[in-house]
UniProtKB/TrEMBL annotation:
Protein purpose: Required for protein transport from the endoplasmic reticulum to the Golgi apparatus.
Organism the protein comes from: Volvox africanus
Keyword Transmembrane helix: no
Annotated protein name in UniProt: Uncharacterized protein
Pfam families on file: WD40 (PF00400)
GO MF annotations, alphabetized: structural molecule activity
InterPro entries reported for this sequence: Sec13/Seh1_fam, WD40/YVTN_repeat-like_dom_sf, WD40_repeat_dom_sf, WD40_rpt
Family in the record: Belongs to the WD repeat SEC13 family.
WD repeats: 8-41, 52-86, 208-243
Amino acid sequence: MTGLSNFDSGHTDMVHDAQLDYYGRRLATCSSDRTVRVFDIVGDQHHHLAELRGHEGPVWQVCWAHPKFGSILASCSFDHRVIIWKEGQGNQWQQAYISPRNLHTASVNGISWAPYELGLILACASSDGSVSLLEYKLDGTWEVNKLPGGHTIGCTAVSWAPANAPGALVSTKQPQSGPVKRLVTSGCDNLIKVWRYGEMGWTEEEVLAGHTDWVRDAAWAPSLGLPKNTIASASQDGQVFVWGERHSGGGWERKLVHDFKAPVWRVSWSTTGSILAVSDGNNNVTLWKESMDGIWQEINL
């Protein structure tokens, strides 16, 4: 998107999210106007492709699936629903799946597709405190499951671990056969939780405490270039932490990236996991990188 200037999205209310697809050629946006819009991006030019209607409330987040599964986009809303959209011939989009009305009893705040090695699985975080998993099966149906527990007051975000965990070869835990299924959730209970799928199904593996207010976002870093599992968290308390999983002895160690003195809404990793983008309540987006001595420093562009 280098050189792409601001452009009119066409939304008639606040835009809450904007996500590029795997190739960086499509941009999806969503808004309080209850719509999702899809754009074609070529150089500094953009072309509106589609407006997707189906939600009955503000749409908080959009998320592209891996292109291995085709052109698939998911969206979540204040209306308690998740819609999975699939592009057909001639840029015709259709609703491939709508979550059942009883799946969540409050706003669905965050969604995240699993690594493609695990199949087509969407994790959904809701204000009702639960996290649901929507998995596409070979017979064309969607299987619905929920994590055993969640966050008592409400769940704000969910993020998958890389399928091939960077610490797997030196981990003290039992060796894994095949891809690893783990994810992280954040909540209004000021906590971050790490979950793992094993023989007994999904279990709560770790609770990370350190924030003093709602944790607004949690993002698991890609494993490229990183020697260990790493999670970033952003909170209403103004602090951003980076958590690193210890190779020996278990547990996670916490480092403060920065205290922004204002609520922090989102954290996002670069493709290599070496740069962290932070958006805060002062309408600023800053980039951070860990120095050789382990201190996180802002990158001035």
